[in-house]
Amino acid sequence: MKIDKFLVREGSKVNLKNHPTDFTGDYSDKEKAAKELEKNVRRIGELQDVMYAQDVYSLLIIFQAMDAAGKDSTIEHVMTGINPQGCSVVSFKQPSSEELDHDFLWRCANAAPERGKIGIFNRSHYEEVLVVRVHPQILQSQRLPDKVKSDKKIWSNRFKQIRSFEDNLFENGTHILKFFLNVSKDEHRGTRKKLEILSRRRQGTRPMARLYERIHRRDPEYVDQKRAVVHNSGRQEMVHAARRFAGDRR
């Protein structure tokens, strides 16, 4: 399958309406797609062995999406052929107290894959220009100098810092693949209620944690800021249909 239609090139603008959420490419049925996936999973496992033996390069795969867009199932389906000893999956949610005592990229830098290995970010450093931007109270709760919090250029500065961070990884042998899983409103609506129940059970009475979860449902401002993130991320990103990505989840 040609991937050009999914690529958002550096500096270009993106309109998610131009990326159908039910796109299946050359696959007319799930069985055909499953066979191709199985073959590609084996190939990924073979390439992982080569990268591990070479011990020069590493691979960082970044997934961004709203809740129920398929991040977990995508990782499960596509990465099943990978040796778990050579791969790590990190989920970034509400920052811990220790993480708040460092700059916003610190926890991501700590989780970056070492040479010969694959790292997967389930959400990432882009949370700091998505959730935090949509909800200013999160920024105000962070342990930053007042001058930084009130700086009108804080978001453009953070984009520059993110680009520099990714450039540094790339120039030191880490190849970065970034994916935004694009889910339709109807698909998302069908799972929202279930997620809200699970979120209440999991988060209890922690309001800031619930805020981090809720913003990923389908907040219109979140979607707008995601467009800004894709536009400013500095390296190519891929927008994938989420409904049938890595198998039909219905």
Describe the structure.
The protein is an alpha/beta fold and 250 residues long. The chain has one domain (4-241): P-loop containing nucleotide triphosphate hydrolases (Rossmann fold, 3-Layer(aba) Sandwich). The protein contains 11 helices and 6 strands. It has a 6-stranded mixed sheet, with helices on both faces. Helix 9 runs antiparallel to helix 10. The protein is globular.
Layout of helices and strands, plus pairs?
Layout: E1 7-8, H1 30-54, E2 58-64, H2 71-78, E3 87-91, H3 97-100, H4 106-111, E4 118-122, H5 131-134, H6 136-141, H7 146-149, H8 154-171, E5 174-182, H9 185-203, H10 207-214, H11 220-232, E6 237-241
Helix pairs in contact: 9-10
- Strand fraction equals 5-15%
Q: Report the top-level CATH class.
A: Alpha Beta
Q: Structurally, how many domains make up the residues?
A: 1
- SSE sequence, one letter per element: EHEHEHHEHHHHEHHHE
User: How does the major sheet shape up?
Assistant: 6 strands, mixed
pLDDT under 50 segments (min length 5)?
Answer: 242-250
From the spread of the alpha carbons, the general shape counts as globular
- Rounded radius of gyration (Å): 18 Å
Query: How many strands?
Result: 6
| Share of residues in helices | 40-55%
In short:
With 250 residues, the protein is of the alpha/beta class. Helix content is 46%, strand content 13%.
Identify the notable features of this structure and list them briefly.
six-stranded mixed sheet, globular, Rossmann fold, alpha/beta, 250 residues, 13% strand, 11 helices, single chain
